[in-house]
């Protein structure tokens, strides 16, 4: 491994001079510092930051901070962002927070703000004021923030419209007794302008029901659980076997929960789509290869990556234009889980 002693020998200076230069100490002349940094780069020396970073002031690295890497949505997003960022000359460092305030805070402060040129961050608990404090001026794009007027560019999926499209499609195919997985019931007027992506999907579901003359009631909802296949499997089995509720379609909050719903229904002897149609949201690859293949509102992950990374790099390069609220493209993908 290359050490500061090796750099000193190659540059013809003392080890102390190398140490001062790598710390950007003002006592070292610009010419000497530049000479040492060039030698450090030539020898592939690395410390907290590369020699190239010390010279340019940039790492050409972007942090992508998501909630849960176990979620296939996060994996698809990370893959698309990583590939597109690489095409723009940037590396991606991916971290998860598990939606914990202390994790969000430490990731921003000790990883993103210290190492990376900018951050793509999905906040769930940390207030925007604290995000600003932790990033200390570093550029960022926030994914579906819960607050308005964040001071950062934002990227969101059209969750309300997507759920409206999904629900409307099932109704157009003859489904009349729909369930939504998963949410507690809330009055439409109370959630129609919600910032939370889950409530936005509930609002889209309810808007489609109302548009078709169906009054939303608590019986349309599988009470709130986690958005994963284990929870959705257990919930739909309980509904199918014990609740007495009849239904012919399920609108799922995401694709992962839709896969759990389908497995649960099939294990209860329910035919898909002959007895019950199922539709998801996200467009994860697993849905395409499930049996039956899952109908979904598919996010264009390449569009997501392109818009988000381009916006962040522009800020890194000094763009001072007003902040933008971006929306990713989505489309209805019809497969065999619906009639």
Automatic annotation (TrEMBL):
CDD domains linked to this entry: HTH_LacI, PBP1_LacI_sugar_binding-like
InterPro entries: HTH_LacI, LacI/GalR-like_sensor, Lambda_DNA-bd_dom_sf, Peripla_BP_I
GO MF annotation terms: DNA-binding transcription factor activity; transcription cis-regulatory region binding
Claim: Chaperone is one of the keywords in the record: no
Alphabetical UniProt keywords: DNA-binding, Transcription, Transcription regulation
SMART domains, alphabetized: HTH_LACI
Domain HTH lacI-type: 2-56
Annotated Pfam families: LacI (PF00356), Peripla_BP_3 (PF13377)
Protein name: Periplasmic binding protein-like domain-containing protein
Organism this protein belongs to: Bifidobacterium hapali
């Amino acid at each position: 491994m290359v050490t500061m002693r090796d750099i000193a020998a190659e540059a013809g200076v003392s080890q102390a001079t190398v140490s001062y230069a790598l710390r950007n100490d003002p006592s070292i002349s610009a010419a000497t510092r530049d000479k040492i940094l060039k030698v450090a780069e030539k020898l592939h020396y690395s410390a907290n930051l590369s020699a190239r970073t010390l010279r340019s002031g940039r790492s050409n690295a972007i942090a992508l901070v998501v909630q849960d890497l176990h979620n296939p949505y996060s994996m698809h997003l990370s893959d698309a962002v990583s590939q597109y960022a690489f095409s723009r000359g940037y590396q991606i460092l991916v971290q998860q927070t598990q939606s914990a305030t202390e994790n969000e805070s430490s990731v921003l402060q000790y990883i993103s703000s210290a190492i990376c040129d900018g951050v793509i961050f999905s906040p769930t608990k940390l207030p925007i004021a604290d995000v600003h404090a932790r990033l200390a001026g570093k550029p960022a794009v926030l994914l579906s923030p819960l607050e308005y007027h964040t001071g950062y560019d934002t990227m969101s999926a059209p969750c309300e419209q997507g759920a409206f499209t999904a629900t409307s499609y099932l109704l157009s195919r003859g489904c009349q007794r729909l369930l939504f997985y998963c949410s507690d019931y809330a009055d439409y007027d109370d959630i129609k302008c919600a910032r939370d992506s889950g409530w936005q999907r509930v609002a889209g579901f309810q808007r489609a029901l109302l548009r078709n003359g169906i009054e939303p009631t608590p019986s349309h909802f599988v009470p709130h659980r986690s958005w994963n296949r284990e929870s959705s499997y257990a919930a739909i089995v309980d509904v199918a076997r014990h609740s007495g509720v009849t239904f012919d379609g399920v609108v799922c909050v995401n694709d992962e929960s839709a896969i759990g719903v389908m497995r649960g229904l099939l294990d209860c002897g329910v035919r898909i789509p002959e007895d019950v149609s199922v539709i998801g949201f996200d467009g994860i690859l697993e849905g395409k290869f499930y049996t039956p293949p899952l109908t979904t509102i598919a996010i264009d992950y390449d569009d997501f990556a392109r818009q988000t990374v381009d916006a962040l790099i522009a800020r890194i390069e000094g763009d001072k234009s007003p902040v933008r609220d971006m929306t990713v493209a989505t489309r209805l993908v019809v497969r065999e889980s619906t009639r």
